Amino acid sequence: MAVLGDIARENAPSPDALLHHALEGDDPKVLEALSVLCMVQFLGDFPLLARVRHRQLELAQLAGDAELISDSEQNLAATYWRNGQLSLAEKYCRECLTTRQRLFGPTGMKTLDITNLLAHIMKDSKRLAEAEPLYRTVLSARTATLGPEHLDTAGSTNNLAVLLVETQQYAKAEALYLEALAVRREKAGALHRSTLLTTYLLACLLERRPARRAEALRRFEEVYEGRVRTLGQEHRETREAYMKVLALR
Question: Is 60 exceeded by the pLDDT of residue 71?
Fold first, then answer.
C-alpha cells in the first residue's frame, strides 16, 4: 500500500497519464515506487521497469552524482540481465564497474557486487572462460574482507561451484558446494531458501554419477521436505524437487 501511495501522489486522471507523469517527472521516490511495483513479485513488467531505470539514470546523470549514477547503472544492468538482454546488461554493467573501481577500488563492496553481476552475465552468455576469473576475484576478496563464514562469501562460493559444474570440474564444484552449504546451514538455517538451493544443486551434481544416486536422492528428499514446509506443496521449486525425488526412487 505504501508503494501505491507514493505513486498516487501524482494525482493523474488515468493510469496512462500517471505512468507518463512518473516517467517524465523528477521525483525519485515516485520512480522507485514504480520500479518496486514493476518487479517480478508484483507485475513482472520488465520493459516498463527498464524505462523506469533509464529515467532514474537520466536524473542521476543530471545531478552529476557518480555513486548514484553507478547505482542506477547496476539497477539497469540487472533489469536487462533478468530479462535475458545480455548485451545491454553487459554494457551498463561495465560502465558501472569502471566508475566503482575508481570510487571504491577493485575490492570495495560495491565494486564486488557489480563484478559478481558481470560474472553472471558472462556465464549466461556462455563466455565461461571470462566468467570464472570474475567469480574467483569476488570470492577471494569477500573471503579476505568478510571472512570465510560470511553469508556473502558462501554465496560467492556457491556461484563459483555452479560455474565449475558447467566447465565439468565436478570434484572442485562438489567441494565448494559442501563449503557453501556448511556456512548457509549454520548462519541461515537448514530451511533457508539459499541453504535448500545449495543442497539442490549439490544433489543435481551427485545425480550425474551413478554410484552416488542414492546420496543424491537423500539430498533431493531433504530439499523437497524443506520446501514443502517453507514454500508450500504447490510452489514451483517444491514441485521441481518432487520430480527429482520421483525420478530417483
Answer: yes
Residue 64's region, left for phi above 0, alpha for psi from -120 to 50, else beta, is: left
What pTM does this model have?
0.85
Q: Which residue has the cell 513482472?
A: 44
Mean pLDDT over 83-110 rounds to: 97
Q: What is the 3-state secondary structure (H, E, C) of 163-225?
A: HHHHCCCHHHHHHHHHHHHHHHHHHCCCCCHHHHHHHHHHHHHHHCCHHHHHHHHHHHHHHHH
Helix axes 15-24, 46-63, angle to 10 degrees: 30
The one-letter amino acid code at 119 reads A
Tell me how far apart the alpha carbons of residues 25 and 162 are, in angstroms, rounded to a whole number. Answer: 42
- Residues 108 and 146 sit within 8 Å (Cβ to Cβ): no
